[in-house]
Amino acid sequence: MITLTGQTLTIEDAKQVLYGGAFVTASAESVQKVEKSREAVENIVKQKKVVYGITTGFGKFSDVLIDAGDAEQLQWNLIHSHACGVGEPFPEVVSRAMVLLRANALLKGFSGVRPVVIERLIELLNAGVHPVIPQQGSLGASGDLAPLSHLALVLMGEGEVFYKGERMEAITALSKEGILPLTLKAKEGLALINGTQAMTGMGLVNYIEAEQLAHQTEAIASMTLEGLRGIEDAFDADVHLARGYRQQTEVAERIRRMINGSQLITKQGELRVQDAYSLRCIPQVHGASWQTLDYVKEKLEIEMNAATDNPLIFDDGEKVISGGNFHGQPIAFAMDFMKIAVAELANISERRIERLVNPQLNDLPPFLSPSPGLQSGAMIMQYCAASLVSENKTLAHPASVDSIPSSANQEDHVSMGTIGSRHAHQIIQNVRRVLAIELICALQAVEYRGTEKMAPFTKDFYTEARKIIPSITQDRIFAKDIEAAASWLLEIDWNSFIHGNLPTT
């Protein structure tokens, strides 16, 4: 059970909810804050105070006063008019993340919603009812208005959801689970959609997948080192301590543990004096990516516990301020930074693939072919990897450098953070496929060298991977192997595998 407080949600907590099916509840103390905040909103309505989004219109209509009797209609109109997202829906796990993060943010007690709104969000999570939310249509400021409006529709019994493996009308799933639709009251529609939960939910899933990929690329690279009879001296602790980056030092240490005991790894000067950079500089390059992932994790965990709607209610309603916490710039930068860092893991991986298949760069069979000339082997797999790497270079262009004014120039600078988070997700999928290709090639290379000479860890990794990817004894449709390997890398419980197989010293 994960208890939401609005203050303490971590990525590890989120993993349990998103992937482990952990149930969610709200802390009693946080609910009390929510109740006080709601009282403040109701007093504002009764006293006919002029407060943005409660007794006024939205955006450029902020100067238009709304009669108290139209409060519910105002919220209904807001959600329906703003639910204009387009394109393919976010992955279901991202939708689940958005519901989780929206509930947590509202529990901070600055948003003025009734506790029942949060209760419904938590009911959706615990019942596995996930809104169908189109990916495109958010500028990443003023909140992720369009995506979150599709989330809010479900609370109202409208829109569509994913439920038990099917896509259906929201009211059907709600009825099956006994969840009653809501009529949104003053401020509640605005509180639901004025936030960064689309880009942050996507970013959260991105980080979880990227973290696993970063670990996997070290294991795959270790097997490549064996397949190419790489030089272990470059991973000596003294080299990396001399530079001083913690993440670089940690990558080198993990590589040493992974190749420990290998009879395929060589010493400096034994076969050659130096390896190519794609082998020798693994700690420096992968370590820099880890530095970036650490930065992204820090920003995500702040944003996951942030109040990002507008206006915010303080001091039991004595202070209601229209600010700009909905602006997604911090996450926009983090996602753009992540794109570059994760893309680089594929960039260097593709260079290792080239060294595995190019007969001018190794003493392995050309293109790892079982019958060079008659059979092409891994030749075109390298083409595929090169194409994915090139595509990533285009996707890695920062979304956050762009801005287009909206709402008649009232909202004249926006983050495009949701676009950045979506592109980061695309890059991660491409990177996983590049790593799948390196894995296929590394498996073939160590098999040629003699698997009995492998390190204990990489031999265990080889054994598990061979259950998914057969040896190349004949040309075949390698697209199937790439997809099978990529799916395995996504689904494998990597933490358990590492803890069960990686030497501790």
TrEMBL record:
There is a cross-link at residues 141-143 (5-imidazolinone (Ala-Gly)). Coiled coil: none annotated. GO terms for biological process: L-histidine catabolic process to glutamate and formamide; L-histidine catabolic process to glutamate and formate. It comes from Peribacillus muralis. GO terms for molecular function: histidine ammonia-lyase activity. The lineage of its organism: Bacteria, Bacillati, Bacillota, Bacilli, Bacillales. This is Histidine ammonia-lyase. The modification 2,3-didehydroalanine (Ser) is found at residue 142. PROSITE patterns: PAL_HISTIDASE.
